[in-house]
Amino acid sequence: MEWSEGMLERFYPDYKYKAVQDIAAGFFKERGIRYAVLDIDNTLVPYTVPEPTQAALEFLERLRGEGVQFCFVSNNRAERVQLFNQTIGAWYCARAKKPLRVGIGKALAHFGAKPEETVLIGDQIFTDVWGGRRAGLMTVLVEPIEEKETLFFRFKRRLEKIVLNRYESTKEAANHV
């Protein structure tokens, strides 16, 4: 299947990192980012880990230290998001329906945030990146911490690989770390 470049650009992240911990200190401030919309599963912790890891907590603490307010917007069930968020106490939207703007819009409304001062960080192109771009947010794609082995996710990751290969061959990939 031949996809045109314009068709694929909607799926290109603004930045790509191996993990959230690789995002440099000062990254958000330098770009005027005051708010972060965060995915949980395979972005902050493996999807099999119900509570925040030390690495996730350190990243969230770093956001706070940089003056970035954050929330969780997840397509997962409320019970899963509540359990993860129990010790953190951030605002969240479960069953967010990404890439639709519903959950992301609720997050922006909660903060009273403008899209241009907000980043969405996630591990999936067709939910996180596309949803963030549709809402006008800066997007950061991280590599999934752990691969899901379902047929659906294997198929989806294969399609994502096509998009990423195209992305990495473009000028936008200059932001690829």
One letter per element, helices H and strands E, the order comes to HEHEHEHEHEHEH
The number of distinct helices, counting runs of at least 4 residues, comes to 7
Helix/strand structural class:
alpha/beta
Shape: globular
- Low-pLDDT sequence parts: none
State the name of the first-level CATH class. Alpha Beta
Rg, Å, rounded: 15 Å
The order of strands across the largest sheet is: 1-6-5-2-3-4
Tell me roughly what share of residues is in helical segments: 25-40%
User: Which fold name is given in CATH as the topology?
Assistant: Rossmann fold
Q: State the domain count.
A: 1
InterPro entries: HAD-like_sf (IPR036412), HAD_sf (IPR023214), PGPP1/Gep4 (IPR010021)
Pfam family, one: Hydrolase_like
Protein name: YqeG family HAD IIIA-type phosphatase
GO molecular function, one term: phosphatidylglycerophosphatase activity
Description:
Helix 6 links the parallel strand 5 (118-122) and strand 6. The chain is 38% helix and 14% strand. The protein is globular and about 35 Å long. The chain has a single domain, classed as Rossmann fold, CATH 3.40.50. It has a six-stranded parallel sheet with strand order 1-6-5-2-3-4, sandwiched between helices. It has helices spanning 5-9, 27-30, 54-65, 78-85, 102-111, 125-134, 151-168; strands at 15-17, 35-38, 69-73, 92-93, 118-122, 138-142. It is α/β, with parallel strands linked by helices and 177 residues long.
